[in-house]
Design brief:
About 0% of the residues lie in helices and about 45% in strands. Strands 3, 4, 5, 6, 7, 8, 9, 10 and 11 form a nine-stranded antiparallel beta sheet that branches. It contains no helices and eleven strands. β10 and β11 form a beta hairpin. With about 150 residues, the chain is mostly beta strands.
Length: about 150
């Protein structure tokens, strides 16, 4: 998985040079969708933010060509592209299981699935109790497959 920092003029910063297991060993303490509120919460989120212990987060967003962009998050703040901010919100994803009693999911590995152009279209975050699967499209589809 590659993590980039979005700034004016394009992505810069912390790319992970092809090592897709950079999240291994982290503990996911929460998963939140980023929703555009005027559309209601009935649909899928525009982005998903994985909150990692130690106050960090990872944001997965689909781009206009239906590929997946993976960047550092700013939890509990909304992403900068949520304009106007009062029309956006973080919300829990009801289709995902609650956090395990240990307080988080421990990541045991990650996988990026790429399209014919080499662009990431799906990310799998493998945890001890199951896998989070995030797929890009018009919006994001987020699933959890228990082991």
């Amino acid at each position: 998985m590659t993590v980039e920092r979005e700034e004016y003029g394009g992505p810069v910063g912390r790319t992970r040079s092809g090592n897709s297991d950079w999240l291994t060993g982290s503990r996911i303490t929460a998963v939140h969708g980023v929703f555009y509120r005027p559309e209601g919460r009935a649909g899928e989120p525009e982005a998903v933010e994985f909150v990692i212990d130690q106050g960090q987060s990872v944001l997965l967003t689909c781009t206009s060509d239906w590929t997946l962009r993976i960047t550092p998050g700013a939890w509990p703040l909304l992403p900068d592209w949520c304009v106007p901010a009062n029309q956006w919100q973080h919300a829990s994803l009801t289709q995902l299981p609650p956090v395990p009693y240990e307080g988080g999911w421990t990541v045991v590995g990650t996988l990026e699935r790429r399209d014919g152009n080499g662009e990431v279209h799906e990310a799998v975050i493998r945890c001890e109790y199951g896998d989070f699967v995030v797929a890009a499209g018009d919006t994001l589809a987020v699933r959890f497959h228990p082991h």
